[in-house]
Amino acid sequence: MFSRKKSTPRIAIDQFSSLVSGNLSLDGDMTFEDGLKVSGEIRGDVRHKPGTHSLLALSAEGRIEGNVSSYDALIDGTIVGDLLVEHLLELHSNARVRGNIRYRQLSMESGAVVDGTLSRMGDEEGSAQVLELPRSRVREG
């Protein structure tokens, strides 16, 4: 009779073990575990240590030019490259991703822009659902 609104999964943010602040720009690949918050700029691949429950948080001012992987991810900035998220991906309203995205669970706010392919990872290989989005120019503010 009464329907309950289905709750959307949310990522718990306890603490970040690593920070790339807004006044920092890095050139080169990096590997992280636990939590990484990026408010600055990284030109290179950003990958989590395999087998860890890592969390990447990219703030609205943050930018990554390279391929990115994480267990969970909160994206509110710009990524130019492919994004792989093993568990939960949250694309916030300022998110701009120019590349292909693979994820298990997705939460996407109005205003987020993806210029690439979204594909959901299934439990079995070959069961991924692919959503093609029209190519559009990523607007940067």
Fold blueprint:
Layout: E1 18-20, E2 25-27, E3 30-32, E4 35-38, E5 41-43, E6 46-48, E7 55-58, E8 63-65, E9 68-70, E10 72-75, E11 78-80, E12 83-85, E13 88-91, E14 96-98, E15 101-103, E16 105-108, E17 113-115, E18 117-120, E19 129-132
Q: Your description of this structure?
A:
This is Membrane protein. InterPro entries: BacA/B. Belongs to the bactofilin family. The chain has no helices and 19 strands. By secondary structure, the chain is mostly beta strands. It is globular and about 35 Å long. The protein has one domain.
Q: How many strands appear in the DSSP assignment?
A: 19
Instruction: Give the CA-based shape.
Output: globular
Classification by helices and strands:
mainly beta
Spatial strand order of the main sheet = 1-4-7-10-13-16
Domain unit count: 1
| CA distance, first residue to last residue | 46 Å
Largest sheet: 6 strands, parallel
Secondary structure: helix percent: under 10%
| H-E order | EEEEEEEEEEEEEEEEEEE
Radius of gyration: 15 Å
Query: Helical stretch count?
Result: 0
Integer average pLDDT: 84
Query: How much of the sequence is in beta strands?
Result: over 45%
Low-confidence stretches: 136-141
In short:
By secondary structure, this protein is an all-beta fold. It is built from no helices and 19 strands. The chain has strands spanning 18-20, 25-27, 30-32, 35-38, 41-43, 46-48, 55-58, 63-65, 68-70, 72-75, 78-80, 83-85, 88-91, 96-98, 101-103, 105-108, 113-115, 117-120, 129-132.
